Amino acid sequence: MVAFLVSFASTPIIKKLAVKIGAMDIPDGKRRVHKLPIARLGGLAIFYGFIVAILCFSNIDKSIRGLLIGSVIIVGLGIIDDVFKLKAPVKLFVQIVAACIAVLHGIKITYFTNPNIFGAENYIELGMWAVPITVIWIVGVTNAVNLIDGLDGLAVGVSSISCISLFAISLITQETNIAILTAAAAGAAFGFLPYNIYPAKIFMGDTGSNFLGFFLACISIMGLFKSYAVISFAIPLLILGLPIFDTLFAIVRRIYNKKSPMEADRGHLHHRLLDMGFDQRQAVKILCIASALLSLSAVVLLMSGASRSIILIFSVILLVWAGMALSGEGNDTSHITTQQNSEGE
To answer: Which of 57, 101, 109, 341 is the most exposed place for a label (fewest CB within 10 A)?
Structure first.
């Protein structure tokens, strides 16, 4: 509740600040779907609400300290990018630095587990590969959330659903600190959401999408989530399935069409839904429902017995099928290129 109230109350102030310092998203008539300039930087309100709640209620241990330090770096990067539009290599470098700080504070994937599909559960120790795999995971999820930030309320809605799912799992696994962290993040995101649903009054910008992505990436491998992380990554992959698979499809699509994987296009799932005739509200609802179903599958997967493998397999098959259908199985939609930015693409 604290995170919600702080985020909700501070958003109008952040909006005035964004206008004053020129942190505005100007529509270019190409990939962006909004028509008028809209303030960015709204993610600062989400981060502020989150931090206040954590300082009030959380027991800050080493891993949480690493999460907070990394988050400050990510938010600082987002603020600068929302105002000055940084180059992609610069952003990637800073994201790697933030991920390394998290790793140095114990946020690390140390092993994978067999999801019991083919027999008894076995552990695969990562050893020297633990650090690079963790950094790739954190940076990848951070950018995946940023890439779905293309419609009013989409990224913050999907992130909120992911936070709620991780909150539920933390209660099941009795991880109190993680429950507090995920509740704070969800509350802060919900506090911002009324200003961000269509038609949006403010965008959360890279400040918000990068923070939420970084937070979700780290929290999914903290505490007991290292072992649940799972079930060969099954649980976080399902919870974060929508942004992750949208990003993977984007990379495959661009390579298939002989484009750079870093070259922005108009082929993301939300763009496809708009091209199919859905309006913004409908597209956001469809994708949020899909995200909720995947997250529900993750919770059931954790709690169930023999049926968990079936749930996992069918969830992945359904997601792959839907993604391929909406992505046109590689049809070229990347002839329109602009700098990848945040909401309103």
So the answer is: 57
